[in-house]
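Researcher: Re-running this chain for the archive, since the previous output was lost when a drive failed. Same request as before.
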Amino acid sequence: QVELVESGGGLVQAGESLRLSCAASRSITFTVMGWYRQASGTQTSETERELVAAIYAGGQIKYADSVKGRFTISTNRIRNTVYLQMNSLKPEDTAVYYCTAVSGYHYWGKGTQVTVSS
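Model: Regenerated structure tokens:
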């Protein structure tokens, strides 16, 4: 079993930045690591969360159109950590952000709240 622990969420004003981090509890080879988000107050299953960014073992990176040019995903494979640098934040970025990683099984973190005020 692998536990993913997110950190770095918080309350910021529009235009400011945040950096999210997610660390895996043990060393494991992931085929993909990434971030999803779920807007506050909505009840959705894991499969209905919005993909924000993902980075694959081969180096491919995918972003949601709404965050392209503002968010950057990166990893430290040695530390089994994935980061999400979020710049020029907008109120519509407000959500719970979930770390995810796949290694034969799809693991999820418990989420970290990001709130952007206008």
